Amino acid sequence: MIAMPIYEFLCSDCGRKSSFLTRSVTSSLDPSCQHCGSARLQRAVSSFAIGKTVGQVHEATGPAPKDPGLDFFRDPRNIGRNVEETFARNGMALPQQVRESIDAAREGTPPAGLDL
After folding, report:
1. Residue 78: its pLDDT value, please?
2. Does the N terminus or the C terminus of the chain have fewer Cβ atoms within 10 A?
3. Residue 88's domain spans which residues?
4. In this structure, are 93 and 64 located in the same domain?
């Protein structure tokens, strides 16, 4: 396996992030902002992800539903998962009202009008 690192920099002029793929960690890099062309960049801490199986996610989010035939989309542990991931990915705090609705739905009290 050949590692081709991606380095990310924040532009001091426009504040936007630029990413640069290099052939190896020893490759020289003379970056400029991909948005405004500025050379005033600071290294940024890159985000990363760790893949999990559905089973690992479910282990962390509570016991299995009573109905063993329940499919993924009707499993209450999956309610709101996409909303949570979207807020987290964008570095935003989940509003308290949304958090409470998701938690209540996972515990068996779905929002009005939602048939589980």
Report:
1. 75
2. N
3. 54-106
4. yes
